[in-house]
UniProtKB/TrEMBL annotation:
Keywords: Glycoprotein, Lyase, Metal-binding. This is Pectate lyase. GO terms for molecular function: lyase activity; metal ion binding. It comes from the Bacteria. InterPro entries: Pectin_lyas_fold, Pectin_lyase_fold/virulence, Polysaccharide_Lyase_1. PANTHER family: PECTATE LYASE C-RELATED. PROSITE patterns: PROKAR_LIPOPROTEIN. The keyword GTP-binding does not apply. Coiled coil: none annotated. The lineage of its organism: Bacteria, Pseudomonadati, Bacteroidota, Sphingobacteriia, Sphingobacteriales.
Length: 490
């Protein structure tokens, strides 16, 4: 009996065991599943998203090492000067904000360089006291400030360059220079876009005395679009001509310039002039005379000059397509830009002046097309080092918007045309915020890498995990100002 009961119990256990579901053996989970891997976006490679004009194909430091600027020193380890002096392709990022007070000029002699000012934690970077000179090919500079001032009596532009190729200056702010604010001419494949040039110093320390000049611009294949020139006595800009007696024969030949969607405000004695040798599109710009603008020049878009040495430099006058420009002081000039908006210098004969006018635009590298009115609004919203606008750019753009000036020249009394940076309060304080953690030191913060499914413990700045066109580090630095670059072209 007991034996039978034992058999029954054993049978019951067997049935229970068979009725249980068979469980699959535990599988060790791969820490990086298909869903955790970054997605590579297919893109067309330009200097960066939003780069336009002849300089849009510059590559800067793409593929090169990341160099961090960790202090505001003039020179030495961790300084901007040391990073610029390095050789090889390189992308400069910042772990500091503030004014870099130079003891001498910085000259970029080694190309394949990107300077990403938007990476500075806080209010950004400003270069003070001396100029920066672009003396190399393939250079991209973005979201930087160059406010030189007169403390060193340095007779130079705040930022300038010539005789080079593949350069793109984007969203930079230049002011308080003793020569021009920012001159770029005799270059090839060049773009300056979305920059603010303001308040060159007029009666300062220039050997020619009064010299509150905005810029000399030109180049054989050069684009200048969506820039603001405000509070300059003259040269808003001066078009170089490329090959002329003033500068000699350019390496790249005569000017071929596309100048459009710029805003010019409160010029003093002259707006734009020059262009002795070249082909120019002057299209859809916005000219707004200010309180300091001479009464006889308030309608002026451009004054054309004649090259005196025709035997050496050719015809001696440029050819200009001028259309779509708004001159707020004159509805007649706005309706027909050649009806009082384009003048001739006394050296240019009436017959030659007639030959300068072109009825069709010159072929140029495409840019986003805005009307002059649209460009005016967009430039005031987004131009300059606008990731974190400082007090200078905020004041200047408000003055343009309201048609006012806040300060006058301390020596001349000219309205809005200043003589020293002290006339407007000197350099603003640029505050720094906390530096974001970057465990692997590749220039991309840990939190951003994790959010984009990269490994924060593995340096991979030059990987193409996120874009077919841009290095991972480029995707990061472009993401910081994506909202600006997308909104400005709407």
């Amino acid at each position: 009996m007991r034996r039978n009961q034992l058999y029954l119990l054993l049978g019951a256990f067997a049935l229970l065991s068979c009725s249980k579901k068979t469980e699959a053996p535990a599988v060790k989970k791969d820490p990086v599943t298909r869903d955790d891997k970054p997605v590579q976006v297919q893109e067309t490679p330009y200097a960066f998203p939003g780069a336009e004009g002849y300089g849009k194909n510059a590559t800067g430091g793409r593929g090169g090492r990341v160099i961090k600027v960790t202090n505001l020193n003039d020179a030495g380890a961790g300084s901007l000067r040391e990073a610029i002096a390095a050789t090889g392709a390189r992308i400069i990022v910042f772990e500091v904000s503030g004014n870099i007070v130079l003891n001498s000029k910085i000259q970029i002699n080694n190309g394949d360089l990107t300077i990403a000012g938007q990476t500075a934690p806080g209010d950004g970077i400003c270069i003070q006291n001396y100029e920066m000179n672009v003396n190399a090919n393939n250079v991209i500079i973005r979201f930087m400030r160059f406010r030189m001032g007169d403390l060193t009596k340095n007779e130079q532009d705040a930022l300038w360059g010539r005789w080079k190729e593949n350069i793109l200056i984007d969203h930079c702010s230049m002011s308080w220079s003793i020569d021009e604010c920012s001159s770029f001419y005799a270059n090839k494949n060049f773009t300056m876009q979305w920059c603010i040039l303001s308040e060159s110093l007029n009666k300062s320390f220039h050997e020619k005395d009064d010299h509150g000049y905005g810029a000399i611009w030109g180049g054989s294949s050069a684009t200048f679009h969506h820039n603001l020139l405000a509070h300059h006595n003259s040269r808003n800009p001066r078009f170089d001509g490329g090959s002329r007696a003033g500068t000699g024969k350019s390496t790249f030949g005569i000017d071929k310039v596309d100048y459009r969607n710029n805003v010019i405000y409160n010029w003093g004695t002259n707006s734009s002039y020059g262009g002795e040798n070249g082909e120019y599109n002057i299209v859809n710009n916005y000219y707004k005379a200010g309180p300091g603008t001479s009464s006889s020049k308030r309608n002026r878009i451009l004054e054309l000059y004649m090259e005196p040495d025709v035997a050496t430099y050719g015809a001696g006058y440029g050819k200009f397509y001028v259309a779509g420009n708004v001159v707020t002081n004159s509805t007649a000039v706005t309706a027909d830009n050649w009806n009082g908006g384009v003048d001739r210098n006394s050296g240019l004969s009436t017959a030659n002046f007639a030959l300068t006018k072109q009825t069709n635009p010159f072929t140029a590298e495409p840019t986003t097309i805005h009307t002059a009115e649209q460009a005016y609004n967009m430039v005031l919203l987004y131009a300059g080092a606008s990731y974190k606008r400082d007090a200078v750019d905020t004041r200047v753009t408000n003055e343009v918007k309201n048609g006012t000036v806040t300060y006058n020249g301390s020596k001349t009394g000219f309205k809005g045309i200043i003589d020293s940076q002290t006339d407007v309060g000197s350099w603003p304080t640029l505050n720094q915020t906390a530096v974001l953690k970057d465990t692997d030191g590749d220039g991309m913060p840990d939190d951003w890498e994790i959010a984009n499914k990269l490994d924060p413990n593995k340096a991979n700045a030059n990987g193409r995990d996120l874009s077919s066109a841009y290095d991972n580090i480029e995707v990061y630095i472009n993401s910081l100002i994506k909202a600006i670059t997308e909104a400005q072209y709407k």
